[in-house]
Amino acid sequence: MNKENIELLIKELLEKIDNSTTTEELNNIRVEYTGKKGKITELSNNMKNIPKESKKEAGILLTKLRNTFQDNYDKKLKEVKEIELNKKLEKDKIDITLPSTKIKRGSKHPMSLTIERVEDLFVSMGYDVVSGPELETDEYCFERLNLPKGHPARDMQDSFYITEENLLRTQTSSVQARYMMNMEEKKPIRIIVPGKTYRREDDATHSPQFSQIEGLVIDKKENNISLADLKGTLEIFAKEMLGDNLELRFRPSYFPFTEPSYEVDVTCFKCGGKGCNLCKQTGWIEVFAAGIVHPNVLKMNGYDPEEWGGFAFGPGWDRITMFRYGIPDIRLMYQNDIRFLQQFDRKDSD
C-alpha cells in the first residue's frame, strides 16, 4: 500500500460515485468498495502484513480513503434520493380538476329501519324497550313459561341446544320471565323485547335465525286489562306498520304461556289475499302470536294471578319488514348483498 495507489483508488471511486444516477448504482458501488470482498475491505485486512515501521503511514492513507469514500457516497446518495423522490411526486401528482371517485355510502338494513319505527310507536304508547340474553337456560326459555320438560308443545320449537340446560333462545318470551322475576316490588309492566331467536327452519318465510318483538302488559286486575285491549293494540300496531288497508284475522289457537290464545294473520302483501306460493294459496300470512298471560306464568314468576293479569304478543320482526318493503324471501335479509340493501337507502315515503 503506497500513496500513489491510494490516490488512484480515490480517483477511481470518486469518478464512479459522480457518474451514478440511481440508488441501485450507488449500492453496487458501496458493495464494490466496502463489502465483505470490497477493495477498501481488502486493504484493511492486509494491514497485518505491512511492516511495523510502515503501518502508521498506511493507516493514515487508509483512513483518508475511507473518509473520502463515505463523505462523497453520502452526499451523492442524498442527491440521488431527492431526485428520485421528485420524479415520483411528479409522476403521482393528483390532478384536482379531474372528477372525484364516487365514495360508496352505507345504508341502514331494512330490519333496522323497521325496529326503529316499532320502538318509536310503542314508546309513544308508554312501553319500555328491554333486552335479554340470546344464550338462554331451559328454565327461562321453557319452564317458567309453563312448558315443563317433556311438554309436547316443545316439539313445535326445534331448538339449538348447546348443553343439556342451555340453548339458543327460541323466543324472546324468555325475557318476560326474567323481567317479572327481577321486579322485587311487583309493579305494572309494559315492555317490548326486540331480538334474535333461533329455530331449525329454513325456507322462503322461515330462517334458522330470525327476530321477534315480544310485547308484555301486566297490570292490576281492577284495571280490567282484557282481550279488547290486546286486539286494539295489535290493530294500531299492524295498521301503523303495514298500512290502513290491511286486514287482520284473529284465530283461536294454543300457546302454553297464554290462555286464551290467538294467532293473528294479515292479508298477503304479494297477492293481496288472492292466494300465491308465498302465502301457500291461503291469502293470509301469520304475523302475531298473542293472548292473555297464563295464570301459571304469572305465579311462577312472582305475580299473584288473583291480583294481576295482562296480555302478551309476539310479531315476527322479519315478517313485518317483508310486508313493509315487499321482500318476497326472508333469506335475502341475511345474505348481506349490498345490491339488495342499497334499495332501502331512503326515507319511508309515509
What does this structure look like?
With 350 residues, the chain is α+β, with helices and mostly antiparallel strands. The protein folds into 2 domains: 3-90; 110-344, Bira Bifunctional Protein, Domain 2 (BirA Bifunctional Protein, domain 2, 2-Layer Sandwich), CATH 3.30.930. It is 40% helix and 19% strand. The chain has helices spanning 3-19, 23-34, 39-45, 52-91, 110-124, 138-141, 174-182, 227-242, 295-300, 317-325, 338-341; strands at 128-129, 135-137, 160-161, 166-168, 189-198, 209-220, 248-255, 258-267, 284-293, 308-313. The strands form 2 sheets. The chain has a 7-stranded mixed β-sheet with strand order 1-5-6-10-9-8-7, with helices on both faces. Strands 2-4-3 form a 3-stranded antiparallel β-sheet. A hairpin with a 2-residue loop joins strand 7 and strand 8 (258-267). Helix 1 (3-19) packs parallel to helix 4 and helix 5 packs across helix 10 (317-325). The chain is elongated and about 120 Å long. The N and C termini lie far apart (96 Å).
Blueprint of the fold:
Elements: H1 3-19, H2 23-34, H3 39-45, H4 52-91, H5 110-124, E1 128-129, E2 135-137, H6 138-141, E3 160-161, E4 166-168, H7 174-182, E5 189-198, E6 209-220, H8 227-242, E7 248-255, E8 258-267, E9 284-293, H9 295-300, E10 308-313, H10 317-325, H11 338-341
Parallel strand pairs: 1-5
Antiparallel strand pairs: 2-4, 3-4, 5-6, 6-10, 7-8, 8-9, 9-10
Helix pairs in contact: 1-4, 5-10
Please provide a brief summary of the model.
This protein is an alpha+beta fold and 350 residues long.
